[in-house]
């Protein structure tokens, strides 16, 4: 409620209090509980939408301009619906909603001018999918105010992925957008990235809490080794296909990886993908059986695979995870997101959260010189229209 009240006040100051009714929306960030770098390799992932995210306010105008303003970033950008829309570096964050506007128009949607204001409590560039949250939110807002037609949220996720792939230039998979659009309160989503079949799994932690640990080392996916890793997976799959049919890398077996990949780098990349896909399926079974400790152990195994075989962790993430393991009450921890900075997550005894936070923050500061942000996260619904 505090975020909505702030958004209302700031919207009136930015755009004035007069005009058509203002509508308010929320789009969550997402955390992937296990199954990293699987979404573009055709396997299973296990994300959940977060109570942290991005709020949006929108009001229709009388002209053909869409004004984009964020309380978290500059600049303010105005899009003329009658002119070509291009990705321009000077527009920074606003290229994401600009891409949504362009692709909606290209898809045949009729858009009216409007004023838009964003306000988020989701850290940018930390692996919690701020980009997916912004893309899904913008598309959902514009579709809602410009049409009475029901919005298919699976198609919404696909649309947002297309914008990020083609307009932003990040070759991401579908997981982030799907979780942001389709999240369900207190549940994680077992998602088959090949077929988009999904199942909601209750995420009941009993005496434990999900803790997010922000390394405060930002990463920019388009400037990282993300696309390099994806290319390595494609190379590994091409080699394996010489010997056995496989529609994607997750259809290979660990024996295929060891037998057919002689290049050490490709072997390690593929070993992570295949073993991580197995961990996801095992993790869901353990959760369904109420085995939180077993699930937490798989989280730790996932981090080691991402660190050693996929090499997407780094000094800060490793230091954070190591600090978490040394703190009392932690039963499992791992990096989350694409890596190269961003966040890690941990399962921690709820009655030891204060001690855990203090120890992790102090140790991380000592080992890296950076200040961590540690907070407990809830599991939320996907993108939605809020009551004003």
From TrEMBL:
Q: Which residues bind ATP?
A: 70
Keyword annotations of the record:
ATP-binding, Carbohydrate metabolism, Cytoplasm, Galactose metabolism, Kinase, Magnesium, Metal-binding, Nucleotide-binding, Transferase
Q: Hey, where's the site called Transition state stabilizer on this chain? A: 30
Query: Which residues are listed for substrate binding in this entry?
Result: 36-39, 226
Q: Where is the Galactokinase N-terminal domain?
A: 10-59
> Where is it mainly found?
cytoplasm
The yes or no answer to whether the keyword Ligase is present is no
Q: In which pathway is this protein known to take part? A: Carbohydrate metabolism; galactose metabolism
- Annotated Mg(2+) binding sites: 131, 164
Xref: InterPro entries:
Galactokinase (IPR000705), Galactokinase_bac (IPR022963), Galactokinase_CS (IPR019741), GalKase_N (IPR019539), GHMP_kinase_C_dom (IPR013750), GHMP_kinase_C_sf (IPR036554), GHMP_kinase_N_dom (IPR006204), GHMP_knse_ATP-bd_CS (IPR006203)
Q: Which PANTHER family match?
A: GALACTOKINASE-RELATED (PTHR10457:SF7), MEVALONATE KINASE/GALACTOKINASE (PTHR10457)
Q: Tell me the protein's name.
A: Galactokinase
Q: What's the encoding gene here?
A: galK
């Amino acid at each position: 409620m505090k975020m909505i009240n702030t958004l209302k006040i700031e919207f009136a100051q930015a755009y004035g209090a007069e005009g058509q009714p203002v509508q308010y929306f929320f789009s969550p960030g997402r955390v992937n509980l296990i199954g990293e770098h699987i979404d573009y390799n055709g396997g299973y992932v296990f994300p959940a939408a977060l109570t942290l995210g991005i709020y949006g306010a929108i009001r229709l105008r009388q002209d053909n301009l869409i004004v984009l303003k964020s309380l978290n970033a500059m600049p303010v950008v105005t899009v003329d619906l009658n002119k070509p829309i291009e990705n321009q570096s000077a527009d920074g964050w606003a290229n994401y909603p600009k891409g949504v506007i362009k692709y909606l128009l290209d898809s045949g949607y009729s858009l009216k001018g409007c004023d838009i204001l964003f306000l988020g409590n989701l850290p940018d560039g930390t692996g919690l999918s701020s980009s997916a949250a912004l893309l899904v939110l913008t598309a959902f807002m514009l579709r809602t105010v410009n049409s009475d037609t029901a919005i298919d949220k699976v198609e919404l996720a696909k649309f947002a992925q297309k914008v990020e792939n083609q307009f932003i230039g990040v070759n991401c998979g579908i997981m982030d957008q799907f979780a942001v659009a389709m999240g369900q309160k207190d549940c994680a989503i077992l998602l088959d990235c090949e077929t988009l079949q999904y199942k909601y799994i209750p995420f009941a932690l009993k005496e434990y809490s999900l803790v997010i640990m922000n390394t405060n080392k930002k990463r920019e996916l388009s400037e990282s080794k993300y696309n390099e890793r994806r290319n390595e997976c494609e190379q590994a799959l091409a080699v394996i296909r010489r010997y056995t049919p496989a529609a994607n890398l997750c259809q290979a077996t660990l024996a295929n990886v060891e037998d057919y990949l002689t290049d050490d780098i490709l072997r390690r990349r593929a070993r992570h993908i295949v073993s991580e896909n197995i961990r996801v399926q095992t993790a869901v079974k353990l959760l369904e059986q109420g085995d939180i400790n077993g699930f937490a152990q798989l989280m730790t195994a996932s981090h080691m695979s991402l660190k050693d075989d996929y090499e997407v962790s780094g000094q800060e993430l490793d230091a954070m995870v190591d600090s978490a393991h040394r703190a009392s009450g932690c039963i499992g921890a791992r990096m989350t997101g694409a890596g190269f900075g961003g966040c890690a997550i941990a399962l921690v005894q709820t009655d030891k959260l204060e001690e855990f936070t203090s120890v992790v923050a102090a140790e991380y500061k000592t080992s890296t010189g950076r200040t961590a942000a540690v907070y407990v996260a809830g599991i939320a619904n996907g993108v939605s229209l809020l009551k004003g």
